């Protein structure tokens, strides 16, 4: 996704919503961790670690990742322990359920639904078509 944003500066907008899978042990705390890292300007860095190191997403691992990223670990830990982003995540879950979404990741490009991870070129083709004057 970062590559797409860099390819189309000022032309596309990325909106991320959290939909932690309720049957995954650490999905909820991982969502909290990414948002807590975002509070300190390191959303993408945490996102990348969570993807690369899944399924090691328990609390202690998340705190270790925060330390590795140079985050204020005390603030980070307080955020995940106190569910600081609970309302945001709950709102995202309600939105997903209202849209009958059950798969992650799911992307929308001008209303076109894309389910699952796809290569850069797949998204680029769709975006180029959507940006083409009609």
From TrEMBL:
Entry keywords, A to Z: Disulfide bond, Oxidoreductase, Redox-active center, Signal
Highest rank taxon of the organism: Bacteria
Signal peptide bounds: none
Family matches, as Gene3D superfamilies: Glutaredoxin
InterPro entries: Thioredoxin-like_fold (IPR012336), Thioredoxin-like_sf (IPR036249)
Single GO term (MF): oxidoreductase activity
Protein name per UniProt: Thioredoxin
Organism: Desulfopila aestuarii DSM 18488
């Amino acid at each position: 996704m970062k590559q797409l944003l860099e390819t189309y500066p000022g032309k596309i907008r990325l909106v991320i919503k959290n939909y932690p899978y309720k049957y995954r042990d650490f999905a909820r705390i991982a969502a909290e961790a990414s948002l807590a890292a975002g509070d300190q300007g390191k959303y993408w860095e945490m996102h990348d670690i969570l993807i690369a190191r899944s399924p090691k997403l328990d609390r202690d691992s998340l705190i270790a990742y925060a330390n590795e990223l140079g985050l204020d670990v005390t603030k980070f830990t307080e955020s995940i322990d106190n569910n600081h982003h609970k309302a945001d995540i709950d709102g995202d879950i309600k939105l997903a359920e209202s849209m009958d979404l059950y798969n992650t990741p799911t992307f929308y490009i001008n209303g076109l639904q894309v389910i699952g991870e796809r290569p850069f070129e797949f998204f680029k083709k769709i975006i180029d078509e959507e940006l083409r004057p009609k």
